[in-house]
């Protein structure tokens, strides 16, 4: 940085040089001077309402607030002069004037800025002789947040959070002066997807976690610095427990990942770890009844049985269905078991097509902010990757980044977009191809196929061309058929635009989707994106199980009966297997069919690394103790029982070491390198295929195309009916375009029956132009909604929609 | 010398024809023949200062507008909520076209295409009258597209607030106008750089803008020749309290306060003795009777220890207990504190609580000292000037009339009141 971007000032006689635009409060930290604050929060920016940070600046007639004043050349600042001390004591006296004497019972006690500032900067006495304000002490703002209005010091951090960070203005200040209060409009619940962060940033114990209130003193908690395992963001969080019971989950800011926030699913969505539906014991099913067995014995039994089947029917008769929820270590070992030990390439972890590697840079989260244009393809971050949603809103509202959206459905981010184009459901391949052609040689594709007008396509092409730095964020799970190849082709076309810097974030919703691909849980690639002879994909394995060619399947943290397209057909196929092993942490529809059950520890109890959508590898630490064996020990037992040269791992990091040795891209990943902020793995190689053909969408004589949309708060194995987030659950709904609603004679709120493949789903009609005509969108709201039963799998599914 | 109140009581003046009949809307020809910047220079040279309270030179403020950033907005501050002040109301209700003319000229000078008049919530009647006047002005081509062939477009809207004193503060006003919570904004950026909808904005008081047509028609020199060296022109003063003829008076700045009270306002009621006066509205420190010869202009009043403010002279005779008056004023500030910053939100209430005790005769000298210390802890430490305004009456009443407090304290010590 050149010198004219630096400013020299002195603070309490200590010289300090900081970049232009730095606030005094931050400059002071550089020389170890603490200026007390309440309302200031670096993510929210200057506000200046609490007046706690007053300092004296030479040549300024009045004291000034260090949180709003930027450094000016040669400023002379004093933070300990008699004038400042008097002001600090005065402000603290005002702040405490009507604050209750709750410290002994307050959740914030021990980690309370009001306590700390009073201790360090207060006068130690009060001159208040009147009754303190008498405000409501227990007002639920939502089922998960309770406000104690007496403790509120009106710093407006929470309301500014809702305005600036969430861009919702859901939490607001109502009323005036002494009577002001933090509230919502019209008494609506404060129920955004990221509401809980206000609990952490509240500088007093006013905003409390309804679940945690009065449960434990903060200093008695055991805090584990761990990661959230709910989505591909892998936000950093602290899991606080007491006597091995989960107490609360808080943010653990990592600017490279979460920017200091977690979503409510992280904060309030972990009660599954103490759920009654957990699988805690290994078991074998004999004569229809499950018999408890020792986990290691079960592991050996699984290994033996698989190996026998391989001996008898060949390696192509067994398969592994993993999941993007396992850690790299667990997935790597399973990959080793199946590929190296059992000799099969039948591995997969998903029902859509995807390939590892990118033809352009793999961008991480920070690039969303430093790009000039974010191009969002098929992605709905609010529902799929909530903290990415916040990052994109930040980029657009505070970093001047433009947002362009290409999707088959309208999403919450549309209102932030410069341009938002909706392609027809199932026409993703055609739309991506049209865009790639438009960028390469002009042309706009066929509107009757893509649903996007020539004009829109032209504007999109222009926007990308003038982007300078483009960050493409795409959700492979939303693409149909082989469109992922078209997408990768589009990425290389963008990469070839002269004078453009670009990269992409493969934004699959699941926690470790990138890691699962890197670890080779794919039919056609071994770890690190190395091409392998093609084995069976997940859907092919179901087909072959149905036909009887596949004899054995091991499911790791996967519940195809509910989550795979096909519904009943999947169930029947699995029942056809000679051997079904389910290794999971929860009892599921699939585990009910298993011959052998292995318990999986899962988030909270497990440990290992995961790779987020930005390619960042981080360590997920154990938060609670368990008597059960770690998953990697179970898998390693299977490997060792079949190998000539057994490898013993003492800790999960020994597996990480092997990954680092064996998996291209992971060479630099080790316990030390990922400790603080994690580390991005080197991009894995991308195989440049030929330009794919756009798949023709078969048309049905009747019916509408079906798009199943992801929802953050789905009633499933993770969020049960007793979840504190149950208020977010929605009834089964179908979004019908107004044109189609008119044709079908639907009115808003009608009951509809959707049918396909012999399955039926009932849903309330919502007439919204969320997608183009000719299709419906059904958000997946619950496991028992059964919506995947309607889907065919692979390419586009058709449903018949009738009045119910 | 009447500029603003010339013909103010002429029947039918609110109609465009009568207004034009007495010479209204004649300034355009002269104005449009000059470049906008030249108009700014004229207003600068006239010495016209803001009449909303701070007395900031109007032309200078206009010249601070962010260069080449458009659109720009003009907002007329018709919130008039400073206790004691009622001069804007008279202008608005009796001569709306004068303000419209002033706003057109100002918009021309500042290259503004959209202007708003922000009224306090209670000014429904004035806003209705203005809407009629605006309609007439549109019909006549004074508003709308290409005004009088000048190439200038201007739309003018009225907007009513919801009744908060703080919304008279310009940045809180802009928040309110945008539909946000009426709370002052952080400055800088000042409205001239980022105001309404984050665009360059001029905010001026009704009286300020209403003075512009005369300055354009008669010339800057003529205006600058009126008043004192630094306080130019005429000022509307709302005289209230214990005078025989309360009301709005247009004076040449610099007139002695004694003349204002005893000649224009007819002297003290029942020929009582003058005890105290608040020269510029409730936010300005109160002065004792011996300061009554102070010249009524910005500099002289400041030298005497107070401020001219919005020009609301509140007169108190010898029957007044200053503590009681201060208690009432402190109630107002507690009620009107927006609550954004801690010292004002908490301090205004605390002061009111203590004053209540003193007024009830159950306070001590310690309370009076405590009040002074609270004043010190608030002064210049609040987010916006309302906090300082709340300190004004308390600190000045103790400074100038501590004996009134002590009398009440003695009641307790003398056993007249039992606690
Ligand atoms: C608490 C507070 C209340 C105010 N109320 C008013 C008001 O009612 N009317 C007004 O014109 N200015 C009021 N002001 C002053 C405005 O902020 C602003 O300075 C003024 O409108 C500028 O116009 P002028 O330069 O023409 O005076 C108030 C200021 C403060 C701090
Ligand atoms: S918020 Fe802090 S100061 Fe207030 S009661 Fe709780 S711990 Fe004590
Ligand atoms: S609830 Fe907490 S964060 Fe919100 S204004 Fe009150 S003290 Fe600040
Ligand atoms: S001083 Fe503070 S609380 Fe008082 S009105 Fe101004 S901003 Fe609001
Ligand atoms: S921290 Fe500076 S005013 Fe609140």
Please tell me the CATH architecture of the largest domain in chain B by its name. 3-Layer(aba) Sandwich
State the domain count of chain B: 3
Q: For the record, give the distance between the C-alpha atoms at the N and C termini of chain A, rounded to a whole number.
A: 67 Å
- Structural class of chain B comes to alpha/beta
Average pLDDT of chain B works out at: 96
Strand content of chain B: 5-15%
Kindly list the characteristics that best describe this protein.
heterodimer; A: 804 residues; alpha/beta; Ubiquitin-like (UB roll); Rossmann fold; Dimethylsulfoxide Reductase, domain 2; 7-stranded mixed beta sheet; 6-stranded parallel beta sheet; 37 strands; 21% strand; globular; B: 419 residues; de novo design (two linked rop proteins); 3 domains; 5-stranded mixed beta sheet; 4-stranded parallel beta sheet; 17 helices; binds flavin mononucleotide; binds iron/sulfur cluster; binds FE2/S2 (inorganic) cluster
Would you give an account of this structure?
With 804 residues, chain A is of the alpha/beta class. Among the domains of chain A are: 95 residues, Roll (Ubiquitin-like (UB roll)), CATH 3.10.20.740; 215 residues, Rossmann fold (3-Layer(aba) Sandwich); 146 residues, Dimethylsulfoxide Reductase, domain 2; 100 residues, Barwin-like endoglucanases (Beta Barrel). Helix content of chain A is 26%, strand content 21%. Chain A is built from 22 helices and 37 strands. By secondary structure, chain B is an alpha/beta fold. Chain B folds into three domains: 209 residues, 3-Layer(aba) Sandwich (Rossmann fold), CATH 3.40.50.11540; 84 residues, Ubiquitin-like (UB roll) (Roll), CATH 3.10.20; 92 residues, de novo design (two linked rop proteins) (Up-down Bundle). In chain B, helix 3 crosses helix 6 and helix 15 runs parallel beside helix 17. At the A-B interface, helix 2 of A face helix 14, helix 15 and helix 16 of B. Bound molecules: flavin mononucleotide, iron/sulfur cluster (SF4) (3 copies) and FE2/S2 (inorganic) cluster.
């Amino acid at each position: 940085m050149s010198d004219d971007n630096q400013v020299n000032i002195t603070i309490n006689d200590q010289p300090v040089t900081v970049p232009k635009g730095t606030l005094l409060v931050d400059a002071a930290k550089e020389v170890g001077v603490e200026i007390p604050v309440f309302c200031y929060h670096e993510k929210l920016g200057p506000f200046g309402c609490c007046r706690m940070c007053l300092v004296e600046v030479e040549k300024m007639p009045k004291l000034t607030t260090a949180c709003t004043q930027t450094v000016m050349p040669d400023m002379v600042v004093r933070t300990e002069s008699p004038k400042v001390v008097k002001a600090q004591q005065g402000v603290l006296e005002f702040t405490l004037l009507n604050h209750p004497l709750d410290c002994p019972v307050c959740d914030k006690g021990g980690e309370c800025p009001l306590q700390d500032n009073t201790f360090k900067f207060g006068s130690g006495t009060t001159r208040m002789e009147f009754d303190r304000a008498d405000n409501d002490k227990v007002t639920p703002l939502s089922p998960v947040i309770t406000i104690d209005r007496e403790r509120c010091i009106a710093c407006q951090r929470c309301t500014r959070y809702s305005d600036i960070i969430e861009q919702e203005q859901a939490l607001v200040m109502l009323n005036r002066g002494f009577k002001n209060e933090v509230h919502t409009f019209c008494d609506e619940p404060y129920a955004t997807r990221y509401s809980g962060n206000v609990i952490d940033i509240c500088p007093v114990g006013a905003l409390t976690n309804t679940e945690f209130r009065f449960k434990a003193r903060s200093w008695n908690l055991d805090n584990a610095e761990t990661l959230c395992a709910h989505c591909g963001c892998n936000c950093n969080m602290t899991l606080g427990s007491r006597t091995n019971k989960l107490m609360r989950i808080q943010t653990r800011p990592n600017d490279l990942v979460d920017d200091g926030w977690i979503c409510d699913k992280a904060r309030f969505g972990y009660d599954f770890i103490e759920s009654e539906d957990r699988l805690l014991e290994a078991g074998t099913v004999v004569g229809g009844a499950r018999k408890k067995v020792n986990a290691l014995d079960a592991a050996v039994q699984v290994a033996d049985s698989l190996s026998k089947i391989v001996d008898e029917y060949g390696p192509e008769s067994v398969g592994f269905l993993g999941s993007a929820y396992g850690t790299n270590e667990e997935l790597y070992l399973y990959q080793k078991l199946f590929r190296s030990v059992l000799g099969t390439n039948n591995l997969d972890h998903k029902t859509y097509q995807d390939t590892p590697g990118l033809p352009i840079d793999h961008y991480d989260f920070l690039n969303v902010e430093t790009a000039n244009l974010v191009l969002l393809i098929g992605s709905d971050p609010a529902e799929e990757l909530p903290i990415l949603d916040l990052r994109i809103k930040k980029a657009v509202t505070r970093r001047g980044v433009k947002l362009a959206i290409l999707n088959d459905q309208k999403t919450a981010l549309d209102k932030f977009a410069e341009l938002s184009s909706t392609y027809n459901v199932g026409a993703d391949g055609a739309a991506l191809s049209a865009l790639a052609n438009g960028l390469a040689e002009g042309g706009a594709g066929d509107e009757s196929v893509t649903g996007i007008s020539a004009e829109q396509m032209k504007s999109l092409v222009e926007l990308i061309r003038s982007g300078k730095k483009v960050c493409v964020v795409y959700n492979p799970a939303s693409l149909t058929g082989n469109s992922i190849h078209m997408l990768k082709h589009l990425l290389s076309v963008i990469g070839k635009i002269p004078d453009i810097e670009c990269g992409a974030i493969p934004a699959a919703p699941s926690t470790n989707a990138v890691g699962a691909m890197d670890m080779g849980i794919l039919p056609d690639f071994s770890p690190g994106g190395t091409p392998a002879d093609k084995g069976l994909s997940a859907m092919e394995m179901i087909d072959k199980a149905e036909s009887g060619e596949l004899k054995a399947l091991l499911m790791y943290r996967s519940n195809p009966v509910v989550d795979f397209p096909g519904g009943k057909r999947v169930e029947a196929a699995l029942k056809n297997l000679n051997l079904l092993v389910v290794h999971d942490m929860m009892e599921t529809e699939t585990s009910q069919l298993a011959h052998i059950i292995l318990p999986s520890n899962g988030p909270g109890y497990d440990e290992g690394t995961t790779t987020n959508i930005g390619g960042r590898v981080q360590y997920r630490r154990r938060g609670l103790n368990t008597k059960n064996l770690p998953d990697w020990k179970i898998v390693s037992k299977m490997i060792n029982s079949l190998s000539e040269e057994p490898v013993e791992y003492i800790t999960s990091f020994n597996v990480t070491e092997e990954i680092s040795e064996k998996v291209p891209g992971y060479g630099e990943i080790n316990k030390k390198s990922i400790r603080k902020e994690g580390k991005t793995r080197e991009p894995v190689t991308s195989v440049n295929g030929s330009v794919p053909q756009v798949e023709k969408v078969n048309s049905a004589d009747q019916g509408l195309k079906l798009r199943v949309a992801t929802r953050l708060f789905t009633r499933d194995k993770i969020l049960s009916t007793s979840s504190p987030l149950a208020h977010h659950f929605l009834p089964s709904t179908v979004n019908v375009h107004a044109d189609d609603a008119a044709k079908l004679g639907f009115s808003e709120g009608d009951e509809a029956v959707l049918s396909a493949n012999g399955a039926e789903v009932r849903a309330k009609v919502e007439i919204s132009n969320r997608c183009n005509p000719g299709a419906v969108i059904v958000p997946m709201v619950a496991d028992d909604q059964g919506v995947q039963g309607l889907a065919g799998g692979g390419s586009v599914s058709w449903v018949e929609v009738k009045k119910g | 010398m009447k500029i603003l109140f010339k013909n103010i009581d002429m029947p039918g003046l609110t109609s465009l024809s009568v207004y034009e009949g007495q010479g209204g809307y004649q300034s355009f020809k002269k104005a449009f023949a000059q470049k906008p910047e030249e108009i700014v220079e004229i207003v600068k040279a006239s010495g016209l200062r803001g009449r909303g309270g701070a007395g900031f030179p109007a032309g200078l403020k206009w010249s601070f507008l962010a260069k080449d950033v458009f659109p720009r907005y003009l907002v007329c501050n018709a919130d008039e909520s400073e206790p004691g002040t009622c001069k804007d109301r008279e202008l608005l209700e009796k001569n709306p076209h004068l303000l419209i003319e002033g706003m057109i000229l100002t918009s021309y000078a500042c290259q503004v295409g959209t202007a708003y008049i922000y009224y306090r919530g209670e000014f429904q009647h004035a806003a209705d009258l203005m809407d009629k006047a605006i309609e007439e002005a549109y019909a006549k081509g004074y508003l709308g597209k290409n005004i009088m062939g000048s190439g200038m477009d201007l739309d003018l809207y009225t907007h009513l607030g919801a009744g908060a004193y703080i919304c008279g503060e310009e940045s809180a006003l802009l928040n309110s106008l945008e539909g946000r919570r009426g709370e002052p904004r952080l400055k800088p950026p000042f409205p001239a750089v980022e105001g309404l909808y984050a665009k360059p904005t001029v905010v001026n008081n009704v009286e300020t803008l209403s003075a512009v047509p005369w300055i354009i028609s008669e010339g800057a020199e003529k205006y600058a020749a009126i008043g004192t060296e630094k306080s130019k022109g005429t000022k509307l003063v709302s005289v209230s309290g214990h005078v025989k003829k309360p009301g709005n008076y247009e004076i040449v700045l610099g007139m002695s306060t004694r003349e204002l009270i005893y000649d224009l306002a007819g002297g003290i009621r029942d020929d009582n003795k003058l005890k105290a006066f608040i020269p510029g509205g409730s936010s300005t420190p109160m002065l004792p009777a011996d300061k009554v010869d102070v010249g009524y202009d910005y500099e002289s009043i400041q030298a005497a220890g107070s401020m001219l403010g919005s020009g609301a002279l509140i007169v108190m005779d010898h029957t007044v207990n200053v503590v009681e008056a201060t208690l009432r004023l402190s109630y107002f500030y507690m009620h009107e504190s927006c609550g954004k910053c801690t010292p004002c939100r908490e301090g205004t209430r605390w002061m009111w609580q203590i004053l209540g005790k003193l007024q009830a005769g159950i306070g001590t000298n310690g309370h009076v000292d405590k009040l002074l210390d609270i004043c010190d802890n608030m002064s210049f430490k609040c987010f916006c000037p309302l906090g300082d305004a709340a300190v004004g009456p308390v600190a000045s009443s103790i400074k100038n009339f501590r004996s009134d407090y002590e009398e009440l304290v003695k009641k307790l010590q003398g056993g007249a009141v039992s606690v």
